[in-house]
Amino acid sequence: NEQVREYLTELCNLAFLEVRLGRLCRGIHRVLGRSFELITRGALPPEFRDLMHYPWTADDQRRFDRYLVAVRRLHRVTPWIWPLLWKSYLLDLRTRRHLGLRVF
User: Fold this and answer.
1) Which residues contact 53 (CB under 8 A, 6 or more apart)?
2) What's residue 30's pLDDT?
3) d(CA 37, CA 40)
4) Which of 4, 29, 69, 101 has its Cβ near the most Cβ atoms within 10 Å?
5) For the purposes of burial, counting CB atoms within 10 Å of the CB of 1, is it exposed (0-12), middle (13-18) or buried (19 or more)?
């Protein structure tokens, strides 16, 4: 379905930020959108990429592989920060639910 494909593409290239938060996030979408889309598409199984009609070239694979190497290196030198990020996210989520605020 084309509508589903468009919706999922907006999620993976951060275009939804513009819709959700307006002009403020247009820059985020334009600066980071292509990188996030590459990372998201790279993490998908090839069968799903085919179903979504997402092209995937050898250059895309090389860029994705370089991204993975960089993330592995970053994780090795900053292992303590990742649990903190997840715990802060969960705390924010639980606080919003408790206060009756919108989560998304």
Assistant:
1) 5
2) 85
3) 5
4) 29
5) exposed
Distances (CA, A) of 5 to 1, 51, 53, 54, 89: 6, 9, 8, 9, 28
Region at 101 (left for phi over 0; alpha for psi -120 to 50; beta for the rest) = beta
How does DSSP assign 12-28, residue by residue? HTTTHHHHHHGGGGHHH
- For the chain, give every domain's residue range: 2-56
How far, in Å, CA of 58 to CA of 45, rounded? Answer: 15
Which pLDDT does position 103 carry in this prediction? 75
Q: Which residues lie closer than 8 Å to 44 by C-beta, 6 or more apart?
A: 52, 54
Query: Whats the size of the chain, residue-wise?
Result: 104
Mean pLDDT by 10 residues, the chain (104 residues): 88 82 80 91 94 94 96 94 91 93 78
For the chain, what is the total number of helices (H) and then of strands (E)?
Answer: 6, 0
What pTM value is reported for the model? 0.73
